[in-house]
Prior knowledge:
Strand content: 5-15%
Low-confidence stretches: none
CATH class: Mainly Alpha
Mean pLDDT: 92
Structural class: mainly alpha
Strand order of the largest sheet: 1-2
Largest sheet: 2 strands, antiparallel
Number of domains: 1
CATH superfamily: Winged helix-like DNA-binding domain superfamily/Winged helix DNA-binding domain
CATH topology: Arc Repressor Mutant, subunit A
Helix content: 55-70%
Order of helices and strands: HHHHEEHH
Amino acid sequence: METMNTSETAARLRRAITRLNRKLRHSSLGGVSPAQASMLESIEKRTNPSLGDLAVAEQMKPPSVTRIAQTMQEAGLIILVPDLEDRRCTRVHLSPLGRKEIAAIRRRKTEFLEKKLLSLSGTDQHKADDLVTFLERLLEES
Length: 142
């Protein structure tokens, strides 16, 4: 029986997850850029974020976030609102269209994966289900 190399398995897992994430992102974008899709997700995860909060979350420079946010506002995806307590600060909210876009991105990602799963044999579909359970366990907070 072959001995498992944990470091090699971890590296393979990282590469596979990274490649899968790229394919999911590429298959799901629709009419938004990768940066816009990421920012929509970041806005949804936070309560009333500022542009500065998003710069930190997205690991971007504030001027880049401001440019992307302005483009997203022009497209009707977000609403930029001056902070009531600090007029120098701008808060970001998802618009109804932005919420629809996030739902569409998620739907397209799920459809991509579903198509891939349907192309597998029944045995491999069961393995995929076991893998999902394993990944969920791996991600549980300790």
